[in-house]
Amino acid sequence: MKALESYFQKQASTIHLLMDQESRSFTADTFHQLRVEIKRVKALVDLIAFCSKKWNPKKTFKPFKVIFKQAGKVREIQLQLALLEEQPSFNSLKGCRKHYKKKLKRALEKFFTVTNSGTSGKLRKKHRIIIARFLQIGKKKQRRYMAVKRQEIKKMLRQNTIKKKQIHTFRIRLKVYDYNEKIMKYPEQNKGIAARNRLMELLGHWHDFQVSILQIKKATRNCASDSNEIELLENIKSTFISKRNVLYDQINTALKQQHFLDAEKA
Question: Does 266 map to a domain?
Answer without folding.
Answer: no
